[in-house]
Each structure stands twice: as C-alpha cells, then as structure tokens.
C-alpha cells in the first residue's frame, strides 16, 4: 500500500453537492490517496493542507486546480471507417437522420479485431489525456450476433460500463423485415450479448426510418431488463417523440440527447429525477447544427442533468469533456460550476455510481488536474488542452 499526499492545490473541486451548483470548491486543501496498484487507489483524507497527515509520497501540483476525473457516460468507441464528409455536408445544411450509421456498420464489420482494439484504445487514451477517467462504451455498429458480441468484449477490455446497443439501427440486410430484426435483438442477440454488458440501450426515434419506434423500444428495454441488464435510452434527438417518457416510465438510469422536449417530457423528467438522469450531449448539437436543449430550464425545474461527449463517428467525433463543458456554458445556460458537476457527479449518477465523480473519503482516486488555477478555465480557455487525468503513485 502506497499513500500519496497531493499538495499545493490551487482550487480543490470536490463536487460534494455544496456551494454554487454543487461544485464544493475550496482553496488551501490537500488530499491523501492510498493504492496498491495497478488501478485507481482510494481517497482516504481530504482537508486543510495545514493539517494534512504524513504520506509515503508527496505530489506537488504547483497551484493547479484538482477535480474529479470526468465521467463520460455516453460514447460509441468501437468502430472503424470515416464519416467526415457527412459532417461537412451537415455544415452545408444537410439534416442528420441516422442513415450514416450504416456506413460505420459496414466498415466495422469488415475490420479485424486488432484494428478495432487499437482504435478503441487510442480513443480511450485520448479521453484520459483530456481528463476523463470513466467512460461508458456502447456496441451498436455490429448489428449481427457475432459482431455485437465482439464489440462488447472489446469494450469490456477498457471499461466496466459496457452497453448492448443492438437496437441502434435496422441493418441493411433486415430492412424489409424490421420485426424480424427486433426479434433478433430481443432473442438470440440479447442472449449472446447480455453476459458481456451491464446496460441495454435503444435508439428510440420514430422520426428516423433507421431507428426504433416507442413500442419497439419498449420491447427491447423490457427484454433487456428480463435478461438482467439496466436501462438507458437514446431519445428525442431528431424530433419530439416517446423516448423520454418511455425512459422515465421504465426507470432507465438515463435518457440521452433530450434535444426536443415537450412540457410533458420535462414533467416526466422532474417526476423521475430520483431515478432517471437527462444526459445532454451538446457536441451533437454542435456537429449536427441542431438547437441546443435548454439546460437552464431543466435544472431550474429540478431535473437530474448530466453532460457527456457521445463520441461517435456520426454525430460528434469529439472525445473532449472540456469542450462539452464549454458548450454547456456558452450554449445551454449552465453556470461553469453546474457544467463541471454535470460532467463528473452527474455522469456518475447517470451510471448509478457513487464511487466516482466526486472527491470524498472512500471515493475512487479518479482525479483530473488542470493547467489552470480554477475550474472556470475549462470553459474560459475553450479549445486549449488544459485538463488531464492525474496519475498518482500507487495507482
Ligand atoms: N443517435 C444515435 N446514435 C449516435 C449516432 C450514431 C451515428 O450516427 O453513427 C448518437 O448518439 O448520436
Ligand atoms: Zn449515442
């Protein structure tokens, strides 16, 4: 067991629920971490630097800001292929309708295991280099039994938060038999995939011919729950629809996107705030030229809000949680404190995790450090790589 005392912290952002937006930011603090390595240690002490206990090692962070590592609770990282031309077309006015998923499915199916693994590992490393210490990873670009299982197995090599998303898109070979594809997703594919996943997700979007209706989504989620998986939903991304209310009704941990919300959707999110988090993905609005959801109104109404990257080749090929924080502040009406909390403790809540997303005694020592004195710089210095995961001896 090695203990490490982290000292000379400019601002310690605990996200402990106190202070403006729950940021729990304090100066003059120190943190002690204990670990046996490999893997993250545990936070064993937090308090005034003047009364810090002795430790085996001292890590002087030189007046920088220390905060919980970002919890990116929505990402699609197992894929091959390039869709940059689709992005350029959208910037020229084309609307996103989900059809491009088929391009990624073809490329991903054709890729060898080693190629997919290397790409996945590089994406996770890219995230860590920007301060993300937990990421959820979905399947959904295989859409055939062996390809979905392969994606989940690869995802499990890099995270515990693995999500089965067979209901991402109706693949081309099943286009004439949608019902048959849903049968597969809730039948043989689910049986093969459930042992490799914690979560099940569905792209509930009746506005897209490529995605799933409310009733199809209900079937997928119910089958997943029966198979022991917990629920997440892609909802209300392209247009108004049933996704948000379905997620709330079925007790999903998170409903993600929430771009188009009716008053009834907001009411459902308020009523379900103890169970269901609205995970906002502002990089998608940026990359699809869509309207940003009104996070201010959701927070004021009492909705549980997280922000995540949705890193994927179609709607947002950015892995940067600092960029998402900057967008949340600039475009969605969140204060800098609220955005940081939504990217840490909020993401943890969307994953039903209490051991991450906060700096408290007993939490995992998943920490990030900023090349800056305080958290305001995350949005203030948008586009500048000031955040990174903090490596602590004993980890
Ligand atoms: N909308 C569904 N899934 C992804 C996009 C997938 C893609 O276009 O490749 C999303 O979360 O935005
Ligand atoms: Zn997604």
From TrEMBL:
Signal peptide: none annotated. One of its GO terms (biological process) is L-histidine catabolic process to glutamate and formamide. Fe(3+) binds at residues 74, 76, 234, 310. Zn(2+) binds at residues 74, 76, 234, 310. Its EC number is 3.5.2.7. It is found in: Cytoplasm. Pfam families: Amidohydro_1 (PF01979). Residues 66-370 form the Amidohydrolase-related domain. Binds 1 zinc or iron ion per subunit. GO terms for molecular function: imidazolonepropionase activity; iron ion binding; zinc ion binding. Pathway: Amino-acid degradation; L-histidine degradation into L-glutamate; N-formimidoyl-L-glutamate from L-histidine: step 3/3. It is an enzyme of class 3 (hydrolase). 4-imidazolone-5-propanoate binds at residues 83, 141, 168, 237, 315. It catalyses: 4-imidazolone-5-propanoate + H2O = N-formimidoyl-L-glutamate. One of its GO terms (cellular component) is cytoplasm. Keywords: Cytoplasm, Histidine metabolism, Hydrolase, Iron, Metal-binding, Zinc. Its cofactor is Zn(2+); Fe(3+). SUPFAM superfamilies: Composite domain of metallo-dependent hydrolases (SSF51338), Metallo-dependent hydrolases (SSF51556). N-formimidoyl-L-glutamate binds at residues 141, 312, 314. Belongs to the metallo-dependent hydrolases superfamily. HutI family. HAMAP family: HutI. Catalyzes the hydrolytic cleavage of the carbon-nitrogen bond in imidazolone-5-propanoate to yield N-formimidoyl-L-glutamate. It is the third step in the universal histidine degradation pathway. This is Imidazolonepropionase.
């Amino acid at each position: 067991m090695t203990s490490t005392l982290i000292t000379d912290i400019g601002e310690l952002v605990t996200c402990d629920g106190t202070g403006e937006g729950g940021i729990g930011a304090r100066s003059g603090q120190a943190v002690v971490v204990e670990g046996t390595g490999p893997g993250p240690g545990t936070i064993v002490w937090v308090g005034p630097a003047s009364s810090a206990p002795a430790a085996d090692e001292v890590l002087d962070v030189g007046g920088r800001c220390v905060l919980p590592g970002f919890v990116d609770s929505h990402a699609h990282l197992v894929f091959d292929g390039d869709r940059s031309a689709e992005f350029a077309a959208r910037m020229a006015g084309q609307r996103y309708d989900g059809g491009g998923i088929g391009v990624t499915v073809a490329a991903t199916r054709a890729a060898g295991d080693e190629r997919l693994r290397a790409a996945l590992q590089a994406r996770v490393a890219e995230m860590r280099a920007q301060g993300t210490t937990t990421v959820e990873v979905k399947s959904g670009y295989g859409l055939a039994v062996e390809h979905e299982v392969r994606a989940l197995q690869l995802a499990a090599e890099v995270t515990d938060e693995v999500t089965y998303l067979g209901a991402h898109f109706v693949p081309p070979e099943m286009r004439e038999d949608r019902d048959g594809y849903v049968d597969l997703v809730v039948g043989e594919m689910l049986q093969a995939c459930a042992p490799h996943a914690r979560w099940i997700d569905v792209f509930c979007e009746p506005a897209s011919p490529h995605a799933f209706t409310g009733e199809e989504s209900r079937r997928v989620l119910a089958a997943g729950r029966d198979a022991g998986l917990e629920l997440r939903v892609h909802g209300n991304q392209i247009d108004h629809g049933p996704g948000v209310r379905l997620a709330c009704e079925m007790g999903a941990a998170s409903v993600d996107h929430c771009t188009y919300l009716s008053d009834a959707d907001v009411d459902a999110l308020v009523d379900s705030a103890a169970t269901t988090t609205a995970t906002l993905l502002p990089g998608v609005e940026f990359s699809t030229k869509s309207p940003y959801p009104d996070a201010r109104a959701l927070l004021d109404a009492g909705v549980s809000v997280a922000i995540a990257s949705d890193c994927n080749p179609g709607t947002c090929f950015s892995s940067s949680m600092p960029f998402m924080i900057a967008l949340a502040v600039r475009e969605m009406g969140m204060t800098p404190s609220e955005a940081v909390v939504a990217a840490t403790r909020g993401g943890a809540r969307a994953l039903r995790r209490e051991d991450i997303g906060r700096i408290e005694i007993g939490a995992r020592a998943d920490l990030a450090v900023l090349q800056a004195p305080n958290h305001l710089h995350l949005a203030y210095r948008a586009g500048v790589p000031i955040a990174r995961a903090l490596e602590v001896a004993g980890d």
